[in-house]
Amino acid sequence: MSDDAALSSALGALADGELVDLTHALEEGVPTVPTHARYGHTRYESYEEGDVACHYRLTLGEHTGTHVDAPLHFIAEGDAHYDISSVPLDRLVGRAATIDVTDVGPNETVPADRIREWEAEHGELTEGDRVLFRFGWDRHWDTGADGTYYMEEWPGLSEEAAAYLTDADVAVVGCDTAAIDVSGTEEFPVHYELLGNEVYIVENLTNLEALPPFSLLATFPLKIEDGSGSPIRAVAIVE
């Protein structure tokens, strides 16, 4: 497809499609990996205090809320696409496949056969696709003590499934859990498999139930020099 045709197709999707927000709102007390910075929102100027403008200081980690992982997050050495500022933007926007795995229970993993079964029903994954796994885990997302279980016992991908996706040369793998590796792992095989093959990871998604088998997805990060990841505003466009 030519650049003009691709642009026309994208503009047509925007005009005719529905935007679906796949992003959790950032607010104090959202679930956070214990070793990561907690989210903070501190008022610095306000109208009530006589200031001419209003603004807040944000305190957050690169992997706070809905975010994307760059290879630097787990891979000690890399090439030109190693950190988040150098990730090619065209890898982060395009066709997405959404696979429903809500029957996968706590601390369980998705085998490669589940992906093959989905392809048999909906069509094969192609090079450069983005693949989203809907576990339904976002139902546990909440602030404070109410969100504690979100960071416990979440399901994930098997190493076999991750290898299947890298063999398919997909661009992004996403999930509505705290991490793409299953809860409790100390080896992080899926992170190493995906990020080691420049397959970027998007975590803490929400609203995946609103997506059909295929949609258009955009997951653009902040341009953080030497960044291991970045919070994003993940948006899908569906017909």
Automatic annotation (TrEMBL):
Top-level taxon in the UniProt lineage: Archaea
A Gene Ontology BP annotation from the UniProt entry: L-tryptophan catabolic process to kynurenine
Alphabetized GO MF terms: arylformamidase activity
A family per Pfam: Cyclase
InterPro entries noted in UniProt: KFase/CYL, KFase_sf
Leader peptide range in chain numbering: none
Name by which UniProt lists this protein: Cyclase
Organism: Halarchaeum grantii
Lineage: Archaea, Methanobacteriati, Methanobacteriota, Stenosarchaea group, Halobacteria
